[in-house]
Design a protein that fits this description.
By secondary structure, the protein is mainly β. It is built from one helix and 28 strands.
Length: 353
């Protein structure tokens, strides 16, 4: 064989090896598996009526707050047993807890309001008017405000954790110039809010309650999930179109990585160096910084179809994903209907626990 032919053969072999390595990497990133740092450890069969949206974990008291359309269930995080049930909502979405005020806050999208309840007794204390489509909600300890993302109204509404419920008055709404979905706060006076219809992140100064910047999420789009590594100033943004996890610098908006995820993302979370992305196709992507400045999907855990949102206990890295069994698709409906009484919470834990 001539030197030219040998060189060509070696070059072709090298290309084949590279192609195989790339294929294996892509397969590892997208193929669900439970042989990795996390696994499905148990499933709570809760039942009850109503849909669901965001699930919130109270890590101190080991409780799960689960909005179920017209009521909000409080579950024991160890057993899934019902501890309390908070009534009086029309179409709820999320729960924020403000321990300093001993209050919880439930967003009601249909009513455009927030239900306030006592964290010890679970009694409803009153309501605060927000704006149309009150949806994602967090408590920002730096400002002492509960921040309510109101999608249809295109605003975030700040509510003091110790708001006077005799008047039930929120602070002035902040116009975002787009439809907010979910948000995160850095604890130092900044909040970061997904604008789903603008493919942007709005940065809000929570002391002045003004928008101070807007950053594109490209090459992602339609951002919905949001979580933050406050120690390292990184945002983790779950995007639907295209399906990507965007890792962003929280100081300047620079995109540090874009990683493949499953279909139907609705939430992201972060704890102890790992970012999590829950998707309605029944996958939970786990992302990690594997080398300085290099981020990878290190595992895709198989959960259950419909488990698109989640809550996380950051102290244990235990993840709770609400879902149900589903009937056949119905024309004109975005999601197939859940079978009555089949609501459940899938629990994902670190391997070995």
């Amino acid at each position: 064989m001539s030197m030219t032919k040998i060189t060509y053969a070696l070059f072709s072999l090298s290309l084949a090896v590279v192609a195989a390595s790339v294929a294996r990497a892509q397969s590892a990133a997208s193929t669900p598996n439970n042989t990795g740092p996390y696994h499905v450890s148990q499933t709570f069969h809760v039942g009850g009526e109503g849909g669901w949206d965001y699930l919130t974990v109270d890590p101190e008291h080991k409780l799960l707050y689960v909005p179920r359309s017209s009521h909000t269930m409080v579950l024991d995080a160890a057993t899934g047993k019902t501890v309390a049930d908070i009534p009086g909502q029309k179409r709820n979405h999320g729960v924020a807890i403000a321990p300093s005020a001993s209050r919880g806050f439930i967003t009601d999208g249909q009513d455009g309001s927030v239900t306030v309840f006592d964290l010890k007794t679970y009694a409803v204390l009153g309501k605060v008017k927000a704006a149309d489509d009150a949806d994602g909600v967090i408590y920002d300890a730096a400002s002492g405000k509960v921040l309510v993302a109101c999608g249809d109204a295109g605003v975030v509404v700040p509510i003091s954790a110790d708001v006077d419920l005799k008047t039930g008055k929120a602070d002035a709404a902040v116009d975002l110039g787009g439809k907010p979905e979910f948000l995160a706060a850095d604890g130092q006076g900044k909040a970061f809010i997904n604008l789903e219809d603008k493919d942007q992140i709005a940065v809000v100064d929570t002391k002045t309650m003004k928008v101070v910047n807007k950053w594109p999420v490209s090459p992602g789009g339609s951002p919905v999930g949001m979580a933050m590594d406050t120690a390292h100033r990184r945002l983790f943004i779950g995007c639907r179109k295209p399906q990507k996890l965007i890792v962003m610098n929280a100081d300047d908006g620079k995109v540090l990585a874009d990683l493949p995820i499953g279909a139907g993302v609705d939430a992201t979370a972060f704890a102890n160096g790992d970012a999590f992305v829950s998707c309605g196709d029944g996958t939970l992507a786990v992302a990690r910084e594997t080398a300085p400045g290099k981020f990878e999907i290190v595992q895709t855990v198989q959960t259950l179809r419909g488990a698109r949102t989640m809550g996380i206990d950051p102290s244990t890295r235990t993840i709770y994903l609400p879902t149900a069994e589903f009937g056949p698709p119905v024309e004109g409906q975005r999601r197939p209907p859940a079978k009555p009484g089949t609501f459940m919470v899938v629990v994902v834990s670190p391997t070995g626990k």
